[in-house]
Amino acid sequence: MSKKAKIIAVCAFVVVVVAIIAVFAIVNGKAKNQADGSKTFTIKIESERDNYSDTKECTSDLATLGDYLRTMDNCTFSESEYGIYVQGFDGMMEDMDNQYWWCINVNGQMASTGADEIILTSGDEYSFVLKQGW
Fold first, then answer.
1. From edge to edge, which strands make up the β-sheet containing 83-89?
2. Helix-, strand-, coil-residue percentages of the chain, each rounded to 5
3. What is the pLDDT of residues 66-105, one digit of tens each?
């Protein structure tokens, strides 16, 4: 093996080791953040029907969005065997007769689970949008 090939091999090895260390540090940092509870995230509430939009930066050591919603003074909810069910915010209530319901989005995507199964993660945006129609 030539000297140039050895230098390239050593450099490639160093780059791989540095990449592995960086990935470990990132993963370990996220795990520590989740474990120590210092999660900072955004809660957004929107109702076109009520001409309302509010965004708040929040910090919590709770594990799930459902746990956090239970602590919010402006959140009206009920409990069932399936977990928390959001009925309204700030007096803006669902209206089943007119097919109004609260949709949960996580980072702009409709949630595929209930709030009790959504893990709070630093940097995420959790939005509640009053929708009409099934």
1. 75-80, 83-89, 92-93
2. 35, 40, 25
3. 999 999 999 999 999 999 999 999 999 999 999 999 999 9
Closest listed residue to residue 127, CA positions, set 55, 21, 32, 61 = 55
**Is-contact 108 126, C-beta < 8 A?**
no
Query: How many residues appear in the chain?
Result: 134
Rg, the chain, Cα only: 22
Give the SS3 label for residue 112: coil
Q: pTM for this one? A: 0.71
115: left (phi over 0), alpha (psi -120 to 50) or beta: alpha
Cα(115)–Cα(95) distance, integer angstroms: 20
**Listed residue (113, 99, 100) closest to 52, CA to CA:** 100
Judge residue 73's burial from the number of C-beta atoms within 10 Å of its C-beta, 0-12 exposed, 13-18 middle, 19 or more buried.
exposed
The Cα 71–Cα 63 span in angstroms is 12
